[in-house]
């Protein structure tokens, strides 16, 4: 069977990749970023760690031998983030996956797990934590360090088509976003992994995963001497709208880009 051509020079995808995204809710794109772009993001992350923003937080316990930290919405302050958001092919890939006419930058997200970090990122969806509604959205997650299979993001294939699940705080499982009982709980996927279709890929710097904001995903800790520095961009498509919440989500930093 002949393989279909790439969608365009700016979009290193086949139509089969787009179809897979809509079925599974997650795909891997190999070699999306050049070595110079990876270095640009690496510089941005190191600046972010040295100069944390107001939303910077430690997401691991004080007893953890490693450290898991995050920061959000820093692209206006950190030039490297701004350049990768507006000059790389990430938005073009997101636009092709979402369809429609527009792609808007929702926000950026820096995630660093230092060597020896035990803290897992629990299974969750992203969208219930945010102040947006709609179905046309896409998250990009790229590492600047090699990520082995044991430390990569894993996704529950097709879970983006199953509706919203209860968002909870990662460390103490509190329901701070919606009242208890108003949503179904995230299933205990780890109790029987063999009964689920779990997707995940070992990644090299330059690779990226793209996934729907309702796709269930998680990751384990970072064993040994490995360091896992990653950067994420979240994009919104045509039907995404602001949904006021009673709690403060990450501050939106939208920028319109038309296909």
Radius of gyration: 17 Å
What number is the mean pLDDT? 90
CATH class: Mainly Beta
- Largest sheet features: 8 strands, antiparallel
Corresponding CATH superfamily: q2cbj1_9rhob like domain
Shape: globular
The H-and-E topology, N to C, reads as: HEHEEHHEEEEEEEEEEE
Q: Which range best describes the helical content: under 10%, 10-25%, 25-40%, 40-55%, 55-70% or over 70%?
A: 10-25%
Q: How many domains make up the coordinates?
A: 1
Which strand-content bin applies to the residues? 15-25%
> What's the count of strands?
14
Can you describe this structure?
The chain has 259 residues and is α+β, with helices and mostly antiparallel strands. It has one domain (15-247): Sandwich (Jelly Rolls), CATH 2.60.120.620. The protein is 17% helix and 25% strand. The chain is built from four helices and 14 strands. The chain has helices at 15-24, 35-50, 79-87, 90-98, and strands at 26-29, 57-58, 68-72, 102-113, 121-124, 132-133, 137-143, 154-156, 198-200, 208-211, 217-219, 228-236, 241-242, 255-258. Strands 1, 2, 3, 4, 7, 10, 12 and 14 form an eight-stranded antiparallel β-sheet that branches. Helix 2 (35-50) runs antiparallel to helix 3 (79-87). It is globular and about 45 Å long. The model is unreliable at 251-259 (pLDDT under 50).
